[in-house]
Amino acid sequence: MAVKVYGPAISTATVRVLLCLEEMGAQYELVPIDYSTGEFKSPPHLARNPFGQVPAFEDGDLMLFESRAISRYVLRKYKSSGPDLLREGSLEESAMVDLWLEVEAQQYDKAISAIYIEIAIKPVYFGGVPDEKVVAESVEKLGKVLDVYEARLSKSKYLAGDFLSFADLSHIPYTHHIVASPHASLFESRPHVKAWWESLASRPAYKKVTAGTPTSK
Amino acid sequence: MAVKVYGKPQAVCPQRVMHCLVEKGVPFEFVLVDIDAMEHKRPEYMEKHPFGQVPFIADGDFELFESRAIVRYFASKYADRGPNLLGRTAEERAKVEQWLDVEAITYSPCAFSIVFNLFLLPIRGLPGNKGEAVASMEKLDKILEVYEKQLARTKYLAGDEFTLADLTHIPVTRYLVEHCGLAYLLDDKPHAKAWWEDVSSRPAWKKLMSFVASGASFYAP
Fold first, then answer.
1. A6-26 pLDDT per residue, tens
2. What does the DSSP assignment read for B67-90?
3. CA R_g for chain A
4. At a CB cut-off of 8 Å and minimum separation 6, what does A192 contact?
5. CB pair distance less than 8 Å for B101 and A101
6. Shortest CA distance from B149: residue in chain A
7. Quick check: B169 and B16 in contact, CB under 8 A?
8. Chain B residues lying within 8 Å of A96, measured CB to CB
9. What's the predicted TM-score (pTM) here?
10. Which whole-number Å values give the CA distances from A20 to A41, A102, B50, B134, in the listed order?
11. Which residues, other chains included, contact A65 with Cβ-Cβ below 8 Å and sequence gap of 6+?
């Protein structure tokens, strides 16, 4: 039985899970959940994700939420049919993957999601205008995080080490939008970050999942 | 060579790491980083921790930061001793990961906003932002309603055993209850209240609180 992912294809957190399923060549069904009709907070969806967020994930009797937890489960379940993205055969390598996943979830995500919400979500879905002060502050914050990444990636090919891992892939959903925005220079101006992004963006799973996902102009 | 934990012993994130080590019976040396004097933002420290935060650990030659990566590391390394903190099956492990992420992304940012504005700023003689604190308290109440529903079904967050998912909540929740007067948020949530009383009574947590109060540098199980 194919696993199910519940969420809109455009949701960055849903994309995170889809990327992992595609990397592992897994069979899955995407069940769209519609924000504009209030479906996120509907009783059937709240039964899947009690915080009324997306994605949710179903594998038989198992129902999960939180995209990074779902992704880890997927990468373990299908580990014999795709790349080793969690490195759980090595205590120290897997710890480095966990470290850079925490950095992504705490430092990177906070800054980059704030930019995306202002320049893409607000205007397109709420008819609002970007708050330029918030954008400027978030761009500065993201720049400082990317300075740390630039230093790190000048010493190791990928974030957790010289091996690609889920820690790198977890950055894709928001970065995909920002590199297509006027703030692409954040990435273009840092050579090791730029090379790292280009490596991630060349992956077939990335191209497949983001095909047809509108990016902000 | 003992594990070294760098940070301030009263701080939430170092406490998570120390609690895990005490649960697993692992000795450690606590090395003070004076965050009140901004030592964590000085170049010497930031060479180790590029984001200038605490904790930082050294386990022999292996160095790590981010408290939730650190507790996962020790829970895996010492899987064979002490409580099972990572779940016993792939499904249980996934539930542990799920609630760890809820704590990191949803619970703690909200809790920190309250602790920062109602406790950390005032004890330094600075005005906290009451409006922000109240908004966060309302948010936290709603979050705890979800926890209540889960804890009515399972004894702990990820299932019927205490895991990392419960552990990472404890230090900041103690601040909410003991220093911000928010025990009342649990009064209409009997399962969440029972969960809090259970996890905060764990012998390992109590041992850690004594260790922190003692000002000692070396912890031996």
1. 999 999 999 999 999 999 999
2. HHHHHHHHHHHTTTSSS--S-SSH
3. 17
4. A149, A150, A153, A154
5. no
6. A50
7. no
8. 64
9. 0.97
10. 26, 17, 28, 39
11. A48, A49, A50, A51, A53, A55, A56, A57, B98
Closest among A140, A153, A136 to A190, alpha carbons compared? A153
How many CA atoms does the CB half-sphere of B108 hold within 13 Å?
Answer: 22
Residues B95/B158, Cβ–Cβ less than 8 Å: yes
Q: How far is B104 from chain A (nearest CA, A)?
A: 8
Q: Are A109 and A174 in contact (CB under 8 A)?
A: yes
* Among candidates A65, A102, A106 on the partner chain, residue whose Cβ is nearest the Cβ of B98: A65
- Cβ separation of B66 and A98 shorter than 8 Å? yes
Q: What is the pLDDT of residues A146-192, one digit of tens each?
A: 999 999 999 999 999 999 999 999 999 999 999 999 999 999 999 99
| Contact between chains at B76 and A69 (C-beta distance less than 8 A) | no
Q: How far is CA B175 from the centre of its chain?
A: 10
Residue A15 to residue A67: CA distance in whole angstroms:
9
- The ipTM of this complex is 0.96
* Amino acid identity at A12: T
Asked, as a colleague might, if the bond just before B83 is cis with ω within 30 of 0, I would say: no
Q: Tens digits of per-residue pLDDT, B23-69?
A: 999 999 999 999 989 999 999 999 999 999 999 999 999 999 999 99
Return the DSSP state at A209.
H
Sole residue written with tokens 């914050």: A141
CB-CB neighbors (< 8 A) of B105 in chain A: 66, 105
Do B209 and B165 contact (CB within 8 A), yes or no?
no
Question: Does A99 reach chain B within 8 Å, measured CB to CB?
Answer: yes
Q: Is the dihedral of CA B78, A162, B165, B30 positive or negative?
A: positive
